[in-house]
Amino acid sequence: MAKRLTPVARKLRRGRTEVEDRLWQRLRNRQVEGAKFRFQRPVSGSVADFGCDEVKLIVELDGGQHAGQVEADRARTLSLEQAGYVVLRFWNSDVTENLDGVLEEIRRTVLIARGR
Question: Domain DUF559, which positions (predicted)?
Fold first, then answer.
């Protein structure tokens, strides 16, 4: 399944939004508690915005289009959780207006997953 999603993930990486790029610049290169995040990561039948396999954490960014697909997002989150992942969802406005708060929640989740 992941192999079929790889071209989709590549396309999403090339077409990333400004908000995705803003968060990615702060997650990449192990900047959050040394955790390795991947951008547009195929996982469990879908492509997650950001994923950290080490602590089984998925971070999803939701823009305005997600207001009309609440049920689909809920089903996707449930599927990822059933696969053993913790899923954090943030609105794009959370990243633009409170990036430090978003990063702090991600940091806390990483630490909890590591048992600290």
Answer: 4-109
Domains of the chain: 2-113 (3.40.960.10)
| 80 φ/ψ angles, rounded to the nearest 5 degrees | -65, -40
C-alpha distance from residue 46 to each of 63, 75, 104 (Å): 18, 11, 26
DSSP result, 57-89 = EEEEEE-GGGGG-HHHHHHHHHHHHHTT-EEEE
Segment 28-75, tens digit of pLDDT: 999 999 999 999 888 888 889 999 999 999 999 988 654 556 788 888
**The pTM is what?**
0.83
